[in-house]
Design a protein that fits this description.
Residues 18-137 form the Cyclic nucleotide-binding domain. 41% of the residues lie in helices and 28% in strands. It has helices spanning 3-11, 24-32, 87-92, 113-122, 124-153, and strands at 35-39, 44-46, 54-60, 63-69, 72-79, 84-85, 99-102, 106-112. It has a 4-stranded antiparallel sheet. A 4-stranded antiparallel sheet has the order 2-7-4-5, with no helix packed on it. It is globular. The N and C termini lie far apart (49 Å).
């Protein structure tokens, strides 16, 4: 990742909830171990059923999260700037629950699973904060899903 791109990302860290509670130096350490990606419109970033390899943070653009079942596609949600995906599968240690496709050219920070685990040996404070933030994101999404399910059931 170029130093210019790293500086640009550091300017927007308050918009990225997975980096909550981390200072600029700590986020810089994460970015040093991460990849910057630009993925073209209509490309899959993550495929349902595959082994998770990374956490993706959306810097610019939008994605659609969808599941496939019985040869049908079921859209689940849309995500945009500052949101992340892939964290649930890495925390839960199970295959990707859904596929994720870009809706437009989209920029990401990719935090590889092995780099995340390296922080558990190199910098436990960063690791703990990231894990807590990932758990919060998962809980927020679960609460939103629960609410949607309840609204649907009450109709």
């Amino acid at each position: 990742m170029s130093e210019d791109k790293k500086a640009e990302i550091l300017q927007m860290i308050e918009k990225i909830s997975i980096f909550g509670g981390l200072n600029t130096e700590q986020v810089g350490k994460i970015l040093d171990q991460s990849n910057y990606l630009i993925v073209a419109k209509d490309e899959n970033v993550m495929l349902q059923g595959m082994s998770p390899k990374s956490i993706y943070v959306i810097l610019k653009g939008r994605v659609e999260v969808y599941e496939e079942s019985n040869n049908k596609i079921y859209p689940m949600m849309f995500m945009g700037e500052g949101e992340c995906f892939g964290e649930v599968e890495i925390l839960g240690i199970f295959p990707n629950m859904a596929s994720v496709k870009t809706m437009e050219d989209t920029e990401f920070i990719e935090i590889p699973k092995n780099q995340l685990h390296n922080f558990s040996h190199k910098d436990m404070k960063i690791f703990n904060i990231l894990i807590l933030n990932m758990a919060r994101e998962a809980c927020r999404r679960l609460a939103k899903s629960d609410k949607s399910l309840m609204e649907y059931m009450c109709k």
